[in-house]
Fold:
Amino acid sequence: MQLQYMTKTQQNTVCAHLDRAKLKHTKARFAVLSVLLEARSPLTIEDIQRQLKVKVHTVTLYRMLKKFVESGIVYQTDLRTGKAYYEFQKEHHHHVTCTDCGLQEEVKTCVARLQNNAQKETKNFKNINTHSLEFFGVCNKCTSG
Ligand SMILES: [Zn+2]
Ligand SMILES: [Zn+2]
Ligand SMILES: [Zn+2]
Structure:
């Protein structure tokens, strides 16, 4: 597939991820993943739609993101704004978000071990695939202001 709005490297990255998740290569999937690939922070559905280079119906977009999250390509998180946020994580990480100004910082601290503990504890789940975790606080600038 030849797409003008993506570099060859970006296309290769998207291909690799779609292959790993055993998802078919479609123009819409490429378009959505390219937006997420270039984003510097988690995006809402509205953010993604605004930046899309091709038209993707909202319902299709919801379904697609759901599939991406299920297959582990995209990380879905909750930043307590009442909306879901999506992020393409090259390296798995979490965020600390300022509850005053929204400043965001990435942290590598994770709960992978707790996920294992939950796995051992649960009776009804053979597989716990993923987790959601965010930290909140007031950033230095907002504290001193
Ligand atoms: Zn992030
Ligand atoms: Zn702040
Ligand atoms: Zn984690």
